[in-house]
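Teaching assistant here, posting this on the class forum so everyone can see the example we discussed in section. The complex has two components, and the goal was to see what a joint structure prediction looks like when all of them are supplied at once.
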Amino acid sequence: MKVLIIDDDADIRYVAAMSLRAGGTIDVVEASGGLDGVRKAREEQPDVILLDMMMPRMDGSQTIAALRMQRETATTPVIFLTAKTIGAEIQRMKDLGAAGVLIKPFDPRTLANEVLALVP
Amino acid sequence: MANAIKTLNTVTADAGAEVRRQEVLLKTGALQDAILNSANFSSIATDEKGVIQLFNVGAERMLGYAAADVLNKITPADISDPQELIARADTLSVELGTTISPGFDALVFKASRGIEDIYELTYIRKDGSRFPAIVSVTALRNDLGGIIGYLLIGTDNTARKRVEAEQQKLDQRLRDQHFYTRSLIESNIDALMTTDAAGIITDVNRQMEALTGCTRDELIGAPFKNYFTDPERAAAGIKLVLREKKVTNYELTARARDGKMTVVSYNATTFYDRDRTLQGVFAAARDITERKQTEQILQEKNLELESAKSVAEQTVERLEEVEQLKKGFLSTVSHELRTPLTSIRGSLGLLASGAAGPVSDHVLEVVALAERNAIRLTTLIEDILDLERLETGKLDLHITRVPIASILQRAMESLATVGAQSVTVEAPTVSSAIHGDADRIVQVLVNLLSNAVKFSPPGGVVTIGVTVDDEWTEFRVTDHGRGVPAVHRRAIFERFRQVDPSDAREKGGAGLGLAICKSIVEQHGGSIGVDSDEGAGSAFWFRLATHTEETRS
């Protein structure tokens, strides 16, 4: 399985990537922003995308829209991994077509399972 | 008449001369008769002293005296206006450089000096009325040239006097009329002016003099436009009047000689003579400086008001922005605190799980401590944000019918994840429902259960009791811990308040849990409280509306 992590925070990408790789069954690709993420998604064809919401220049909602418009990634499951916890915000992310929403901080020991549980 | 001549003869001093004169008089009798008997001339002859010697029928008719009344008795001065005599004497005295007394002398002095003398004289009639006459005075002389008397021939001057009087009256009336017209013009509060068709001033009143600081003489003949700050506009005004025949409220600013500016509003019309020939423009200027100032002030006030309104609007806008910022702030604080916490907690988790490589037990203990506190910090942030949202009404409650059984089940599941293995929770089976936000009610119940577990001795029992009536459903969480002293029972529902401050370190939590519970319950319209026997445990309870058919609607 291949997971693309799109997050502008390098430390979080590092922790999340290591958490996912820990089980030995998940390949991880990283992108530091929305634009980079859309390109990597086309090139790498991940099975699932972990997408941060609050990013400079191109935020999570713009990124998911771009992913949906790109043939190669139009149906790739997207899970928001976000520090936004207000109910209305979570609902909005689901409305954008996300497969699920995971909250930061996450537990690195359970992250992989949580991601797998959300992928259809 | 013959008698009169005889009388005259008798007073003549020189007998020879008298005879000769008589002869001459007789010789020319026809002429004398014609003159002396004329009823249209008053002929009065006197001796050299002025005593009347002849008083003809004309004199009798005009003056109302019979000859007998006056002959040898009085002088003509006695039947003349004494004031006129005085005036004549004064005038002659000055004119001839000698003192002349205001008597008969005044009447004949010139004639006595051989100067032809015709003048106006008012006789006083016998009845006291006045008779204006023009009198011609001639000295009567003997052959040697000596004066023997005077002849005063008078003609009736009444008609002329009347004409003169009427003329005078007319003149006076004209003067009065002119004065009236002038006073109308002068008493007008407006600055009035007439100009010819070329705009040259032909008349002004005093207000116009005041307005321009120029005299009437300076103004008349000068171009009207010269006295305004905008001469072009002033000239255009005159042209406009000539074209339209009338102009109202034409504003100009007059500049006086001393530089003083006056804003005036002109009303002007053309005016004509009897033949309807255009004479020029009549213009009235009203000083509207004060009105202009008032308008200016009003305008300024309006601007101030506008500005104040704008400030108010900006303030409202700013408040709205602040409100928006505050909303954003909650979200941002959450995000900004959570982002580094994610890395910290993640890193610690990776260390603890060995994913980052093998670590010693000792290190594991320290990492676990750090991770525990990272979690605690995360919870605290969530609690603070929760409370903030609750207290500012930003927390949207999704009120629905919630079965009590589902609340209890979710709470128990949640509790299991926080490691309350050493506590037994006994929950009843309840079939009814409450009216509220399921997530939030579960949050309250979990919070109370967590506290109960936290403060229960190892192996202790925590019980959940539910009591339902038509109106309220009461949840009651009972523990057998150390209890809550009476003095703290109200305070523990406030923020950051714990019975024992050291609890924060020993038991975890920052003292926000109960404040959040209270806020959630109260937003549901419910109530929350604690019953406790100090040292024998506590019972925390909250009441919410029971879901009935009525509450559904």
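For the discussion questions: Residues 296-372 of chain B form one domain. Residues 289-353 of chain B form the longest helix (65 residues). Think about how each of these relates to the inputs above.
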